[in-house]
């Protein structure tokens, strides 16, 4: 099959590789139709990382079932499917209680099968393949990993109707966070440096938009909250901006409020100075949020699939660019340079 493999310099090369083979009778093989480029992927872009050399990457994907094992009952040949790529080892203490997003072997496990979206075919256990309703396209479904991340963060936050919410970052996760918060009855301020992202946020229902660097986020949030600060702040920017955005999040939140850390960190030790005395004396809670899994008895990925199918969450407005897999390096360059290109969500047709 054709696949995009990581090169020594962190870019991609298109190569012919062996098709994946079903290792068990309850596994499924699918033809990838659409794959997304997320912030995690971008943090590895053009970085020399020996451990990823020649790896097939990508974890936001949808496709069509082309092979099933003898014990598969969940899907059938020809089914259009959302492919969930958060796959734990299946036997650790966390996986046994459906907290597989906390699995110690999560990344090695998922990279061996379902988290290989930048290729023609993927395989995985049948419980990670979810049939798509007719009204949900492959491109819509490729956004659902992102929306499930946002839903997991909202579940952790304790958000209720009428909550005053601030969101830092108007990328796909931040915009998903916005739509979920608005659907739950919250009043939302969203902060981002890019005018095109804020314009879309306003269209999607933001009560107030703040352009970072041009306006003062703290004053804007306090004006919306009777000078108290937000009940909940979602940090959805992550990456290199975190040393600025995480302290900002703790300044935007009210006493007794919640900061949910949704944006991702790079590996290793990262020092971010915070006003710990003020955080402690104000009883501000910092809640890290990692990927998604189950909320009570409900799979969070299936919850967002239902919300998209019912029209509660919008998808097409976020999909600004589409590229064929052969142009993956161009697609990554466009996704990275959001200010110049106006990119929000960049998809790859495979």
From TrEMBL:
Cofactor requirement: Zn(2+)
Coiled coil spans: none
Molecular-function annotations in GO: L-iditol 2-dehydrogenase (NAD+) activity; zinc ion binding
Keywords: Metal-binding, Oxidoreductase, Zinc
EC number in record: 1.1.1.14
Domain of life the protein comes from: Bacteria
Boundaries of every Enoyl reductase (ER) domain copy: 10-346
Database matches in Pfam families: ADH_N (PF08240), ADH_zinc_N (PF00107)
Record-stated family: Belongs to the zinc-containing alcohol dehydrogenase family.
Protein name as it appears in the record: L-iditol 2-dehydrogenase
Organism encoding this protein: Sphingomonas abaci
């Amino acid at each position: 099959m054709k696949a995009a493999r990581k090169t020594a310099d962190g870019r991609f090369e298109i190569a012919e590789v062996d098709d994946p083979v079903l290792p068990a009778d309850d596994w499924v093989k699918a033809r990838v139709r659409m794959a997304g480029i997320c912030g995690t992927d971008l943090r590895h872009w053009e970085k020399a990382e020996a451990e990823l050399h020649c790896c097939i990457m990508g974890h936001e994907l949808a496709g069509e079932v082309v092979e099933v094992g003898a014990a598969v009952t969940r899907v059938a040949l020809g089914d259009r499917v959302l492919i969930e790529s958060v796959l734990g080892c299946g036997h650790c203490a966390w996986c046994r209680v459906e907290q597989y997003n906390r699995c110690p072997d999560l990344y090695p496990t998922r990279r061996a099968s379902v988290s290989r979206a930048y290729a023609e075919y993927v395989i995985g256990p049948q419980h990670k393949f979810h049939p798509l309703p007719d009204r949900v396209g492959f491109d819509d479904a490729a956004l659902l990993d992102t929306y499930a991340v946002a839903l997991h963060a909202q579940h952790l936050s304790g958000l209720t109707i009428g909550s005053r919410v601030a969101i830092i970052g108007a990328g796909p996760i931040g915009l998903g966070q916005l739509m979920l918060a608005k659907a739950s009855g919250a009043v939302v301020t969203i902060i981002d440096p890019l005018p095109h992202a804020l314009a879309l946020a306003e269209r999607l229902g933001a009560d107030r938009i703040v352009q970072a660097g041009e306006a003062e986020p703290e004053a804007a949030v306090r004006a919306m909250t009777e000078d108290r600060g937000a009940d909940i702040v979602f940090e959805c920017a992550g990456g290199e901006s975190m040393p600025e955005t995480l302290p900002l999040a703790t300044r935007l939140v009210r006493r007794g409020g919640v900061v949910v850390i949704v944006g991702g960190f790079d590996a290793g030790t990262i020092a971010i100075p915070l006003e710990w005395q003020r955080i402690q004396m104000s009883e501000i809670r910092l809640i890290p949020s990692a990927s998604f899994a189950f909320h009570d008895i409900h799979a969070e990925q299936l919850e967002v699939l239902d919300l998209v199918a019912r029209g509660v969450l919008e998808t097409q407005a976020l999909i600004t660019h589409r590229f064929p897999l052969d142009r993956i390096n161009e697609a990554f360059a466009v996704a990275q340079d959001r200010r110049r290109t106006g990119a929000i969500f960049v998809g790859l047709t495979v």
